[in-house]
């Protein structure tokens, strides 16, 4: 129904952004809200409307390729919209696709909410169906402005966002000391934390 919306990002939370367009504030759930920045500049968000009897969710993505991979993931039994968002937030799409094509269950079960059964189902349902669509896919690089934790609580925001994606306090406690040694913005902390979390599993 909606292909994309262009507007100003007026709010960023651990689970969603608010995109104002034409006097309407659209609440949009995204894989990584901190990939978007609160600014007066007009930003384009590729959207997907998920409708069930009891809920309507508007989901948004930085790129068309991200959205198309999301649509593929939610066709897999056992993966809902929130699970697909967590996978996209935790891994680079090209790595997810590569793992599916290699039948690398060990890599896939590292994602929040993905057990052996779901990983096997991802492989059965999607292997051979992704390369043509995502041959040149990669996550867009974001301009990162270095800010200290004292100035913006970036690390705390990143930890909250990771908890919203399904990571436990125990997992996050293991990687937090390494994060505290860096001086990054929220998105930078999230990207680093996700790399560390995937390595430790």
From TrEMBL:
Keyword set includes Lipid biosynthesis: no
Gene3D superfamilies xref list: 5' to 3' exonuclease, C-terminal subdomain, DNA helicase RuvA subunit, C-terminal domain, Nucleic acid-binding proteins
Region (Domain III): 154-201
Subunit structure: Homotetramer. Forms an RuvA(8)-RuvB(12)-Holliday junction (HJ) complex. HJ DNA is sandwiched between 2 RuvA tetramers; dsDNA enters through RuvA and exits via RuvB. An RuvB hexamer assembles on each DNA strand where it exits the tetramer. Each RuvB hexamer is contacted by two RuvA subunits (via domain III) on 2 adjacent RuvB subunits; this complex drives branch migration. In the full resolvosome a probable DNA-RuvA(4)-RuvB(12)-RuvC(2) complex forms which resolves the HJ.
Domain notes: Has three domains with a flexible linker between the domains II and III and assumes an 'L' shape. Domain III is highly mobile and contacts RuvB.
Primary role: The RuvA-RuvB-RuvC complex processes Holliday junction (HJ) DNA during genetic recombination and DNA repair, while the RuvA-RuvB complex plays an important role in the rescue of blocked DNA replication forks via replication fork reversal (RFR). RuvA specifically binds to HJ cruciform DNA, conferring on it an open structure. The RuvB hexamer acts as an ATP-dependent pump, pulling dsDNA into and through the RuvAB complex. HJ branch migration allows RuvC to scan DNA until it finds its consensus sequence, where it cleaves and resolves the cruciform DNA.
Protein family membership: Belongs to the RuvA family.
Official protein name in the record: Holliday junction branch migration complex subunit RuvA
Gene source species: Sporosarcina psychrophila (Bacillus psychrophilus)
Lineage: Bacteria, Bacillati, Bacillota, Bacilli, Bacillales
Name of the coding gene: ruvA
